[in-house]
Structure formats: C-alpha cells, structure tokens
Specification:
The chain is mainly beta. Helices cover 10% and strands 35% of the residues.
Length: 427
C-alpha cells in the first residue's frame, strides 16, 4: 500500500549467564550475550529478549519505544525453555558486595564508618538478615523534625545509615550492634532494574526478580505509558514498581515486599493504572495511587503486614477497588485522601490498634476500626467482609533465594535423558 512505512522485522535476543559471550550477536542461544545491559543498546519495537537464569548486577535502560502492535518484551526464562539453561531464578540487583573489614568502630555501640569514594551509596543491606534496606537517616523524624545531625541519628537507630557526599564517607549502625564483619553486606549502586523513561511506551516485563535498587525494580517514568509488568518479584528498593507520569500501566501477578515506600506506586497523573492479582507485604504501603493518578483499578490483590497502609488512594479520583484482601496492615487497611472511589467485595481484617479505613491524616473523625462503621459513614463496601479472610500466601524466603542466586549457573545438561526432560518442559 502506498504511503505506509515498512514494518521492521521483529528480532529475538538471548542473554545467558551460564554460556553467554558479549562477542556474539545475541540472536540465538548459541551466540547469546552474557550481560543484560547489552539489551539497552538494541531493543526496539517488536523485539523480544529471553534472559537465562543467574544473578545480574546490571541495569537495563529502554532507549526506544514499542508500539501497541509491536511492544518491546523482556522475558526472564526461568525454565530455560528458550535459552537452553537449567531452570533457575533470573535476578537483577542494584547492589554490590563490600569488604566488611573496611569498617571501623565510630564510638557508640554498633556504629561503624568507612571512607567509600567508589560511588554514591544509595542503600545498605544485610544479606544475612531479612534483606530490607537500612533506613536512610535523611528521611527520619529525628533528622527532619528534631534537626539532629545525621551521624547522631545513626547512633540512635539500629539498621540505619548515612552517606556523607562531601567526604565520601559511609556511616552505619548494624541491626544487632555487632561489627559489620559479623554480617554479609551489600551496598546499593544502581537506580533501577529495568527503566523506561521519556516516552518509551509499550514495554512488557515478565518473570524477573529484582532486589536492592535505589528506586524501583521496574520504572515507567515521564510519559512511558502502556507498560505491562507480569509475575515479577521486587524487594528491598524504594518501590517495587514505580509508575510516574505514565498512563495505562498494568502490574499483574507480582510479589512486592520490603520496599521503603510502596509495592507499586502510581504517581503524577499516571491515569488508568491497574494492579491485579498481586501480593504486597512489609512495604510502607502495599499499593498506592496519588497526585491525580485517576481511574485506577485494584482487583484481587493480597495486601498484608505493610507497616502503614494496605491500599492508599491520595487525590486519585475514579478508582475501582474490588476483591482485595487487606489484612493486618499496621495503621489501616484502606486509606482514602480527597478521592472519589468505588469499593466492594473486599475482605478486611484489622487487629488491635489497626483501622479498617481512614480518611484524614491529621484527625480522628474519619477513622474506622470496624467495617460496619465505615460502611455506614462512607456508603462503600456494602458486600465486603470484616474478618475471616483467606490466609495470605507464604512470604518469600530471601535467604534461600540468595543461596540459589549465589550458586554458579550452568547450561542445561546434554544427552538423551536431558533432551527428553527438556522436550517434556516445552510440551
């Protein structure tokens, strides 16, 4: 047909930590690359990348946009079906190991310091613990309200840190006052796992595990709408998935935990953001819509044990909230601030001192510790349940996950038996 530009042929790229070589062309399992960062240079509309199991201390930045007909697709090939590897976790991390012996005691018990000019430290993680990120003292009340010097805040707070940019010095307070040499530490260096920004639309991310990046495992930023995140695991960062000024993003079937802000955060007019079938725990907020991120949708999510709220709507009109389990989130199961919404068929389970719902951040007039009072006052959730929710799923064992991703990655075995097993997986 006249007047139509030709459609570029879609390509398939392969990355294999077990057998890859960056000297290859990346276009087959036999010529796969070793480093996922190589994908930043090549992925374009219609392309698919299969990444084999392994621990990748790298970041992918999407530099071109997909289209509705030809999205850009990143697939973590956990089964090895496409890459030819043995099954395993496909993990991207923003953190790097550190030699714990560089730290010296700095006065108060548990406080240690070290010069660290290599890079700006964006986070500190005890890998032999629950792997939540240490508290950055610049966000604490002691620093912001009481105006204490940052090093004094480190002395007061276990599991906290301060990086002095002027002197390139790191201060930390261990979780148990023991020296850093009694633990295994990693320091956060990279900003994201997979980043799409500046209008890079129609990007799909499937199956990856992300841990310990400065911002988010997956980030859609400034006009990078129509993204899709499916079945990822993201923990130990600021957000599991961050959507900023990017419309029509779907997060589905993912596990998001121990992030210092939210499991998923739709912000800055990220309209039409949908979170469906996710599990989110031990974040500050499980799922969050704010700042005119209107017409969001929260369906069939399990939000539990978050340190403030399960689900939060903040200046985000038009949200639909259905079929969620909101269980034992520490302040309230549902927070609504200046937002018109429609909510029903959820299950709320609030323990002593926990609220079912709250609507004002500074007073107590619109805080409800029982579902019936909330229903009567707000005319929402008429068919929702108060207690008796199905138990939440088991939490991820991060120590076992760390052990699995620390083991050497090997290619799939050869021979007749291995070929039969691979054929069975593929069929």
């Amino acid at each position: 047909m006249l007047g139509l530009a030709p459609v570029a042929s879609a390509r398939t790229f392969y990355v294999r930590q077990s057998a890859g070589d960056d000297a290859g062309d990346g276009l087959s399992p036999a010529t796969a690359w070793r480093h996922v960062a190589r994908l930043s240079e090549v992925m374009a509309a219609g392309d698919t990348a299969y990444v084999g199991p392994g621990l990748y201390r790298e970041q992918i930045e999407v530099r071109r946009s997909g289209t509705a007909e030809q999205p850009i697709v990143f697939v973590a090939d956990e089964t090895g079906r496409h890459t030819g590897d043995a099954p395993g976790v496909v993990m991207l991390t923003g953190a790097e190991p550190v030699d714990e012996s560089i730290f010296v005691a700095a006065g108060p018990p548990g406080v240690y310091t070290a010069p660290f000019p290599a890079w700006q430290v964006w986070g500190v993680v005890e890998m032999d613990g629950p792997q939540g990120r240490y508290v950055r003292v610049a966000i604490t009340p002691e620093y912001l309200v009481d105006k204490l010097p940052p090093v004094d805040v480190v002395a007061k707070r276990r599991s906290s840190y301060h990086y002095d940019e002027a002197t390139r010095t790191l201060y930390l307070h261990t979780s148990d006052d023991r020296p850093p040499s009694a633990h295994e530490f990693e320091l956060v260096q990279r900003g994201n796992g997979i980043l799409a920004r500046g209008g890079k639309e129609f990007v799909t991310v499937i199956g990856f595990t992300f841990r310990h990046v400065q911002d988010a495992g997956v980030s859609f930023f400034n006009g990078s709408g129509h993204g899709t995140v499916v079945r990822v695991t993201a923990y130990g960062s600021r957000q599991g998935v961050r959507v900023y000024a990017s419309p029509d993003v779907l997060v589905y079937g993912s596990t998001l935990f121990r992030n210092e802000n939210s499991g998923v955060y739709f912000a800055a007019r990220s309209t039409g953001g949908r979170a469906i079938g996710n599990t989110s725990y031990e974040n500050v907020k499980g799922l969050r819509w704010s700042s005119d991120s209107t017409h969001g949708m929260a369906l069939d999510n399990v939000l539990f044990d978050n340190t403030e709220r399960g689900l939060s709507l903040e200046n985000a009109d038009g949200a639909i909230v259905r079929g969620n389990r909101l269980v034992h989130n520490a302040v309230s199961q549902l927070q609504v601030l200046q937002s018109r919404y429609a909510s029903d068929e959820n299950c709320f389970e609030a323990g002593p001192g926990e609220l079912v719902a709250d609507f004002t951040p500074f007073g107590f007039s619109d805080r409800f510790d029982r579902l019936a009072a909330y229903q009567q006052a707000q005319k929402q959730d008429p068919r929702s349940r108060d207690g008796g929710c199905e138990p939440p799923p088991a939490k991820v064992d991060v120590l076992a996950l760390h052990a699995r991703t620390s083991a050497p990655v090997v290619p799939e075995a050869t021979g007749i038996g291995a070929l039969v097993r691979r054929w069975l997986r593929m069929n």
